[in-house]
Amino acid sequence: MQVYLDYSATTPTRKEAIAAMQAVLTQQWGNPSSLHEWGQRAATVVEQARMQVAGLINAPAESIIFTSGGTEADNLAIMGVARLYTKPQHIIISSIEHSAVAEPARLLEQWGWEVTRLRVDSKGRVNPLDLKAALQDNTVLVSVIYGQSEVGTVQPIAELGNIARNAGVLFHTDAVQVAGRLPINLQSLPVDLLSLSSHKIYGSQGAGALYVRPGVELVPLLGGGGQEKRLRSGTQAVPAIAGFGVAAELAGQEMATETPRLMQLRDRLFSQLADIPGLIPTGDLIHRLPHHVSFCLEHADGEKLSGKTLVRELNRAGIGISAGAACNSGKLSPSPILLAMGYSDKAALAGVRMTLGRDTTEADIDWVAMVFKQILQRLSPVELVVSH
């Protein structure tokens, strides 16, 4: 029996998105910047997808800028704002950002910018009062991740966004893990820039988007032909964008039933693993992504019992999970996210994430819980042996 529980890393491309991509590859393969019929057929596909993606977050279609994925969208938001200024300014991020935000911020720091990293509590939540206190006269951007991919915590984005807006500061959020799982309404949410990714919502890899609130200025990262409102030059990846649009539309239609189902499965898995001594749920159990389960082992002992070890052992049993963020899973170093939340180095080496999706069933949950306990019994010291 094989069970995939790494939907926060990537989701399988759904058949409807594949069909849309195949139609582009075989019938609508023109360059959307070309004025002839072939190009205009492709341009129509892109604009249809733009409306579909905008519909998922209740935004105007013209506010959607297609990118190659969530990482590029994050970089365009951070660096696109920074490049408006000839002298270094001040930005604020959280201490638990995805590397697609943390790394551009680190680069700006090397260029003389001041970067404030907001601390989080033991559940991974930012205190809005800390944001208010961190604002300075030269603050030009705040970026706080909406739903943390490693520990599942959902931030008080509306409150944080209002604080930034009242101070006249742009606010960006990486909503890659939230879109399609929790409702997002950009007609009311005080957000200026928001990042999305196709392959987190059952579209293909290779497409993403940045919502740019009308009136917000950015400097593009790429010079070229001026596609995507001159903010993202380069011929659009029309097949991937077509699949993204279909996936976004279907995610919006299915959310009302799929999100509660995922929450029920999530809570079932948490419950079945609750009797393991030393296995601590990470993240906020109330303000949480609906599909997200994460733990760390309080008394882990490094290489023998690390998150990476558990990933390997479960993989041998036909179960796919993750140790922290997927892009960090090859490194045996303490999770910076767990360290920022106050966990010890040992515990931060032993964090695991199980994320659920459209194909996950109750039988999958029960099987994974049983196998996980068996693996821990085999690998754990006496004090961590699962109770019966």
What does this structure look like?
There is one protein chain. The protein has 388 residues and is α/β, with parallel strands linked by helices. It folds into 2 domains: 3-9 and 255-382, Aspartate Aminotransferase, domain 1 (Alpha-Beta Complex); 15-251, Aspartate Aminotransferase, domain 2. Helix content is 38%, strand content 13%. The protein has helices spanning 15-27, 37-56, 70-82, 99-110, 128-134, 157-166, 238-272, 307-316, 336-340, 345-349, 362-379, and strands spanning 3-4, 64-67, 90-94, 114-118, 139-143, 170-174, 193-197, 208-212, 279-281, 292-297, 319-320, 351-355. Strands 2-8-7-6-5-3-4 form a 7-stranded mixed β-sheet, with helices on both faces. Strands 9-10-12 form a 3-stranded antiparallel β-sheet. Helix 4 links the parallel strand 3 and strand 4. Helix 1 packs antiparallel against helix 7 (238-272), helix 3 packs parallel to helix 4 and helix 7 crosses helix 11. It is globular. The two termini are 24 Å apart. The model is unreliable at 325-331 and 382-388 (pLDDT under 50).
Which descriptors would you attach to this protein?
Aspartate Aminotransferase, domain 1, 3-stranded antiparallel β-sheet, 388 residues, single chain, 7-stranded mixed β-sheet, 11 helices, disordered C terminus, Aspartate Aminotransferase, domain 2, 2 domains, alpha/beta, 13% strand
Strand content: 5-15%
CATH uppermost class of the largest domain: Alpha Beta
Number of strands: 12
Unreliably modeled segments = 325-331, 382-388
**Order of SSEs, N→C?**
EHHEHEHEHEHEEEHEEHEHHEH
How would you sum up the global shape?
globular
CATH T-level fold name of the largest domain? Aspartate Aminotransferase, domain 2
Count the DSSP helices.
11
